[in-house]
Amino acid sequence: MPANLHHQDLAGRSATPHIAHCQRHCNISQWKPSRPQHHRRRALRRHCCAEQQSNACSVSHKPGYCWFQQIAQQSQQAAAACLAALQLSMLPVAGDLASPPPSSALLTSPNAQIPRSVDAALRRSIPAFNRDVKDVQNRMEDVSFKLRIPQRKPWQGMAENVQASLVLAQQPDKMMYGVPEERQQEAQRYLKAVQDGLKKVQGAIDLKDSDRTSIRTTDVLRNVAELELIQAPNLSFIPPKNYSSLPQLKGRGVVELIIEKSDGSSAFVVNEGGGPQPQAHLTMVLEGYSAPVTAGNFATNVLQKLYVGQTLTVDYTGVLVGKGTVSGKQIPLEIMSLGDFEPIYGSPLNVQAGELPVLPMSIYGSVAMAHAPDADEGFAAADEFFIYKYDRASSGLAGLSFDEGNFGVFAYIAKGAELIPQLTSGDVIVSAELVSGHNKLTKLPGSAA
Questions:
Q1: What torsion, rounded to 10 degrees, do the Cα atoms 149, 155, 158, 163 define?
Q2: What is the CATH number of domain 241-440?
């Protein structure tokens, strides 16, 4: 298998060397070294002293003391005054700091907005219907992020977030707003779990136990997400009319993939133990809230059994499925940017300019449609998808994949991610089922348009 399989088959283009990338973005070729500063000073000293000896220098100065040295001394004094003023400006003023503490500066970094796990990405993509529930989520997300601050953690700030969240969680009339009547009991169970979980987080923070705080915060966020899903309506936007004829998933869906080795051997080892297994079970969560057209297209392919019997093409960057299944069929590139209310269609994101996706590719187990070589610009293959093996070591300085913003992510492997490295070329998909989300899918196969 060629080493550049991912870029040729998945991206539909050849890999670009890193050196050319740097020359293009950093404009290295136009940089020219200037004359060293000390050379210019020596030349100036020789010129001034020569004029002094010939009595042609019009600037009055002491013997052996050139006018440029006076200017240099004045510049040094001015620089020292500026430095003293800067140091004074950073002293506490009226009980506050003139510059933010390191932790606040870290939290305001643009890259802090990018989720780094499957749970976080799926949780943050849920439309905010109930603002009080969303406030609890945001506060607990802040606690989760502050736990990553090394050494001295801001325990007081985390405690305040948890206390404010608990006050909101103990007001059922606010937290239950928007829950359908038929799902009241289910929502009440999740709300009770949130209340109990927040109290446990408080206890862990009082003990300043980072591990327990992290685990219990994750449990609270998981229950908050389930409550938000119950409250979330369909889409918070209307896709463009020119794509109305395509299937759309207006919410969440779940697909179960079962994969076997071509020789039928038992070679898959799961985290639960029990020895090698003959099948690999992958649970894929389709995110229709942010990518309804792409997720709807994939769900339709699954219902039509398009991927059953397909063999995998695997390399170190990803797992490609369905290559050449339906020739010529394509769908628009669909990516929702952070802060936007609807996806961008037919155009990649400019990540370098600060455009970041709601569903990032830079998470191990992200799923996107591939770029077929014959697909038009701004479109992706309708049949080929790949599971991305994100690797932090081969990513950019911000921890983002070099292909971030070029592919429309529509799903994540939520269960069975430990099996992805065990997949090899030639493995076969023996089953692909849409286990939930039928009621969210428009234009079911075989139904009237």
A1: 170
A2: 2.40.100.10
